[in-house]
Input
Amino acid sequence: MKTFKILLTLLSIFLLVVTGYSQLYENFEQYQDFWPWENWQISPTPPSAPNRHTWGVEDSSVYFPGAPGEYRSIWCSGLPNDLIPGEDDYRIDPNEPAWAIWGPFSLDDVGEAYGSFKLWMDVETGDDGLKVVCTNHPEYNTQHSTLEDLDNWCVLYEIFHPTAQLQWEDVFWDFTEVDSAGETISYLGREDIYFAIVFIDDGDEIRGGGAFIDNLSIGWDVNQVRSDISTTAHDFEVVAAYPNPFNSTVSIKVQSPIDSDVAVSWYDITGRLVGTQNFVMSAGIKTVRWQPESLSAGIYYARINSSGNERVIKAIYLP
Output
């Protein structure tokens, strides 16, 4: 009997180690005929609001250099979706956030808890952005329609001034450092928690491809949660074009940890090459300026390549 109890204890520990580190890992690779899946909610819910943007599962990452290996993500677009990832901008939707909610889940009896995902954004810097929020209040978890509803949720992460767009970034947060109306609190020990990704735009004409989320993980093993998003160091970086839109000259900042050859290729919306810039830069930061010559107003893309690293920047030309 004593031997049996020891074996039972060892089996319980083994099962906890193997299966117990994570509440959620979602790479959105399920090929099902419906969305949202079990434990997910979206708001607004089509078809009641067909002209509002909301979250949908899309074949997406094939359109963007540096995307994760999976070929499906959730995209803030419109449903029923007549928009094409990589080609169409998200819908204009003034002050009406789009929610993707998952839950409930529990952080009771855990000593630490974390979350992470891959994020790709193409938005109006400063006015359009993304919030990651949570609540375990039984009244608030059913309120997810307006900006005012956001005030009742606690903030895990937010971004309205992305330093780099049109590339995948790693997002990570700690459930012991949750912003509740300006006060930092912990969600450890709580039950019936709901987690939400909220996309917000101000409704003007300046917009882009939107936000894509992939490799979403929530768990209590920090190393596992970080590895779920395949975190890699991005020593080579490109800061988004500014001003954007521009009417004469646009600037981008290139950061490199080593001396390197840099090639910048500019393309119009059809993919036609309209300009090139090649230079050698020393380790550090260099500002690159581009002035279109005899080109019409529209969207242009800069592909920046250095020592095998590549980034894509979008700029809107309004002469």
About this structure: The helical segments are 2-19, 147-150, 222-228. The mean pLDDT is 76. The chain has two domains: 19-228, 237-317.
